[in-house]
Amino acid sequence: MPTDLPQPLSILYQDEDLVAINKPSGILVHRSPIDKHETRFAVQELRNQIGRHVYPLHRLDKPTSGVLVFALSSEAASFYSQQFREHQITKTYLALVRGYGPGQMSIDHELSDDADDYAGIKAGGDAKEALTHVKCLDQFEIPLVVDRYPTTRLSLMQCEPVTGRKHQIRRHLKHIGHPIVGDSRHGKGVLNRACEGYFGAGRLWLACTQMVLARRDGSALVIDAPLAADFQQVLKQINH
């Protein structure tokens, strides 16, 4: 029997309108011309798993794990997509970043478009409003030599993006000098490589842990996702 078959997606919530999964790191939401070699896509795997057509309501970057929500009908997609467009969804992320992050702040920093071949968006153009609220949950110092520093300082940050620009959290944390560990595009390569060796695992340490939407009757729908096992292991290793 083959032992390398992909595991079923973890379903966090399902009703007549929506289904939410805990997306693993490394899986694309849907096909992309950038990653033509990829064979795993959350849209296809979830459709096959539940036997229904699904409509992705938002996106998570390939290396990001956590809450990913789909509509189960075009009508539900229309209803909930409006909440995403109008920034009415509350999204909470956890990120492991370089240095000792600020206790609490709002990063109000405009961002121009990052290239998005799937959506037909080219890089550049006018900068657009972008707002992220961040809070430091914990600070660590580990015996890891990087560059001229004998130890490495890290922080666990809670991030709540108000707007939805591509790579917003990653770019905003870089903007304030605290890039996410494992961010190959907006982070520090030497730190990423050193941490990968130290942790014995390497990826973007960013996860969407909660999303709050409004149901059709106006009540709040809160969807929580536990941290992936590899993320939990890293935090456990830091806190030993």
Low-pLDDT sequence parts: 116-121
CATH superfamily: Pseudouridine synthase
What is the CA–CA distance across the termini? 38 Å
Portion in strands:
25-35%
The main pleated sheet reads as: 10 strands, mixed
Write down how many β-strands occur, each being a DSSP E stretch of 2 or more residues: 12
Element-level helix/strand string = EEHEEHEEEEEEHHEEH
Q: What is the highest CATH level, the class?
A: Alpha Beta
Number of helices: 5
Overall morphology:
globular
Kindly provide the radius of gyration, computed on alpha-carbon positions and rounded to a whole number of angstroms.
Answer: 18 Å
**Which oligomerization state do the chains in this entry correspond to?**
single chain
Task: Work out the count of structural domains.
Answer: 1
Give the averaged pLDDT, no decimals: 91
Topology-level CATH name: Pseudouridine synthase
- Please identify the structural class as seen in this structure: alpha+beta
Q: What is the name of the CATH architecture?
A: 2-Layer Sandwich
Can you offer a commentary on this structure?
- By secondary structure, the chain is α+β, with helices and mostly antiparallel strands.
- It has a single domain, classed as Pseudouridine synthase, CATH 3.30.2350.
- Helix content is 21%, strand content 32%.
- The strands form 2 sheets. Strands 1, 2, 3, 4, 5, 6, 9, 10, 11 and 12 form a 10-stranded mixed beta sheet that branches. Strands 7-8 form a two-stranded antiparallel ribbon.
- A hairpin with a 3-residue loop joins β1 and β2.
- The protein is globular and about 55 Å long.
- The termini are far apart.
- About 2% of the residues have low confidence.
